[in-house]
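Objective 1b: paired records.
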Amino acid sequence: REDELIQKIHRLVQKRDFLVDDAEVERLREQEEDKEMADFLRIKLKPLDKVTKSSASSRAQKKADPPPSKPTMAKTGLALIKDCCGATQCNIM
């Protein structure tokens, strides 16, 4: 009976080790995907930075102009992804 219990504990420990390893692999994969998405967005938003910088410098030169009715770049990262990839599924991925 004791040997059976030891074998059962051993199998449970092996399952636990497998699950822990699997969770770590998943965490690393998600971390890599986050990095890739950040790089992708940085590349996609780089042209927008140039546009906003040039419009900011032109606004500084034209101080008499009234402020625009809505900001040129006031979206959050989620809204940008939503505009880029759609609300439900990312077409790029």
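Objective 1b, second protein:
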Amino acid sequence: AQQPGTPLSDHEYHQFFKFLRVTIQASTACHLRELYGCKNSLIQRLDEYENHGVIPPGPICSELPGNPFFRNFCTFSLYRCIMKKYFLKV
């Protein structure tokens, strides 16, 4: 365990920036979704990529307490973007 206030180790920095890059990429995808909507071909390719080639048909259930149900994958993805819960899974 590191002492509070000391710099991260090389391994810890690698993990920190790896997470940061992934979060920035997720945020960028959300901005594209907000600009172009779910019917945009780029957004549909991203959704397909995220789901191993197929956009799941609705309804979508998640592990969220109090809000487990979404009409479709687009609604679920928009919720993740708005709430900045980029890595929330179905």
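The chain has a mean pLDDT of 83. The longest strand covers residues 60-61.
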